[in-house]
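RECORD TYPE: inverse folding
INPUT: C-alpha cells
STRUCTURE:
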C-alpha cells in the first residue's frame, strides 16, 4: 500500500484498494448523483461508489447523461477569501439577522 510519509506531511492513504477497506461498504445500492448527472464528483470517497467505479477503481462517466445534465452542475467550492471570511464570521448576513430577530 502506498501511504504518504510524515516527511511530506500528508497522512492520506493513496492506495485505492486499501482506502476502500478502511472506508467500509457502501451505504446503499445506488448513487443518486451518478444516476441523475452521469458522474459523481465524490468518486471513490462516495458512500455509494460501487456503481460508478471501474475495475481499476477509477470513476466512470455516463457520457449520455452527463452531456444532458452538465448545464445543471453547481460549483461546490468557495474562494479561499470567502471561506476564510465565513469561518472568521466576517460576512454580514443583515437581512437574515433581521428576519431571525422578528
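DESIGNED SEQUENCE:
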Amino acid at each position: 500500500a502506498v501511504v504518504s510519509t510524515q516527511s511530506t506531511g500528508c497522512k492520506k492513504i493513496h492506495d485505492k484498494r486499501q482506502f476502500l477497506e478502511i472506508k467500509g461498504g457502501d451505504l446503499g445500492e445506488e448513487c443518486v448523483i451518478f444516476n441523475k448527472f452521469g458522474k459523481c464528483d465524490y468518486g471513490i470517497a462516495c458512500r455509494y461508489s460501487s456503481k460508478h467505479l471501474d475495475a481499476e477503481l477509477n470513476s466512470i462517466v455516463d457520457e449520455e447523461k452527463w452531456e444532458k445534465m452538465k448545464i445543471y452542475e453547481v460549483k461546490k467550492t468557495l474562494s479561499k477569501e470567502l471561506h476564510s471570511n465565513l469561518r472568521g464570521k466576517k460576512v454580514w448576513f443583515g437581512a437574515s439577522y433581521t428576519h431571525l430577530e422578528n
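NOTES: The helical segments are 16-23, 32-37, 63-69, 80-87, 94-101.
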